[in-house]
Amino acid sequence: MKLTIITPDKPIFDGEVTSVTVPGTAGSFEVLENHAPIVSTLEDGKVIIRTGKDEDIINIIGGVVEVIHNTVTVLAEGIDEK
């Protein structure tokens, strides 16, 4: 599954992942391969990126996620560098 995370300033992540968890407005949710198409708003929080056994966390400041045809695109308003 392909994941792209971008902000108005720069691309943050672009690569293959096994799953990703995003901070949806109605609660966090995980996207796995062959997930149904969805568009959701995002709150400030953690995007958890899993590639096999590795896990990375990026703290975003709001945004939108689109999932379609095993492609996940996160359009974040910004990245919390804390």
UniProtKB/TrEMBL annotation:
Keyword Ion transport in annotation: yes
Subunit relationships: F-type ATPases have 2 components, CF(1) - the catalytic core - and CF(0) - the membrane proton channel. CF(1) has five subunits: alpha(3), beta(3), gamma(1), delta(1), epsilon(1). CF(0) has three main subunits: a, b and c.
Database matches in InterPro entries: ATP_synth_F1_dsu/esu, ATP_synth_F1_dsu/esu_N, ATPsynth_dsu/esu_N
Organism, scientific name: Parapedobacter composti
GO molecular function annotations of the record: proton-transporting ATP synthase activity, rotational mechanism
Family, as annotated: Belongs to the ATPase epsilon chain family.
Membrane topology (UniProt): Peripheral membrane protein
Domain ATP synthase F1 complex delta/epsilon subunit N-terminal: 1-77
Main location: membrane
Compartments, as annotated in UniProt: Endomembrane system
Function: Produces ATP from ADP in the presence of a proton gradient across the membrane.
Any one of the GO CC terms: endomembrane system
One Pfam family linked to the record: ATP-synt_DE_N
Keywords recorded for this protein, A-Z: ATP synthesis, CF(1), Ion transport, Membrane, Transport
CDD domains: F1-ATPase_delta
Keyword Transport attributed: yes
Protein name: F-type H+-transporting ATPase subunit epsilon
